């Protein structure tokens, strides 16, 4: 299994190097896609467009924008790199459940497809979204939950539940870390903080943190 969990996409040279190091074939022989479902802007999401350009700059032969809310999720089988864009994690999870994409993502990950999760896209790759409502309350965001979503069980490729944009939240609220620690105590688990420009890489059962102060 090969996962790259990021805060704000392919936003640093360190993440670019990590992608190239994980790929087992020359990039020119590989195809990629970006799943834009989580974003309210869909294919017009700036992060999706930026990362589409970056994947092409890295030499991948193609990078298609896909929305599994309307496109057949089975199309994901065609790609060697699958990028799950950010947005509303609850909406992405709902559509993955409705479109029977949960098992498909797990199967493709088991087959060695590189999966890149960005913010909400990284959150849904963990085992649950049960902490996200409380996290949003701490941050001061509006509730993103959906009545149609009857459970928070997520894809389950990893137990590493992430807190993206950690540096932004600390800058906006000096008490954020203390509140996050209290949430960890109440939930009985640790949440992994990911700053913009950084990434958590999970490969063959080993997790490593890629840190970069250079956001390019």
TrEMBL record:
It comes from the Bacteria. Keywords: Hydrolase, Protease, Serine protease. PANTHER family: ALPHA-ASPARTYL DIPEPTIDASE, PROTEASE S51 ALPHA-ASPARTYL DIPEPTIDASE. It comes from Paenibacillus vulneris. This is Type 1 glutamine amidotransferase-like domain-containing protein. Belongs to the peptidase S51 family. Pfam families: Peptidase_S51. Transmembrane segments: none annotated.
């Amino acid at each position: 299994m090969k996962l790259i969990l990021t805060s704000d996409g392919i936003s640093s040279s360190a993440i670019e190097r990590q992608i190239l190091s994980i790929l087992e074939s020359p990039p020119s022989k590989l195809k990629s896609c970006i799943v834009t479902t989580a974003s309210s802007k869909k294919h017009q999401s700036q992060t999706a467009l930026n990362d589409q350009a970056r994947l092409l700059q890295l030499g991948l032969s193609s990078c298609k924008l896909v929305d599994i809310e309307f496109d057949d999720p089975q199309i994901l089988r065609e790609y060697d790199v699958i990028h799950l864009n950010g947005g509303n994690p609850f909406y992405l999870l709902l559509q993955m459940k409705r479109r029977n994409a949960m098992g498909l993502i797990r199967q493709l990950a088991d087959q060695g497809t590189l999966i890149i999760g960005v913010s909400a896209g990284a959150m849904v790759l963990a085992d649950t979204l049960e902490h996200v409502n409380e996290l949003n309350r701490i941050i001061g965001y509006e509730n993103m939950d959906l009545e149609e979503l009857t459970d928070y069980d997520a894809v389950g490729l990893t137990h590493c539940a992430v807190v993206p944009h950690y540096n932004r939240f600390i800058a906006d609220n000096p008490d954020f870390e203390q509140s996050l620690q209290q949430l960890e105590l109440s939930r009985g688990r640790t949440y992994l903080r990911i700053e913009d420009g950084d990434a958590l890489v999970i490969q063959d059962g080993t997790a490593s943190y890629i840190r970069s102060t250079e956001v390019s």
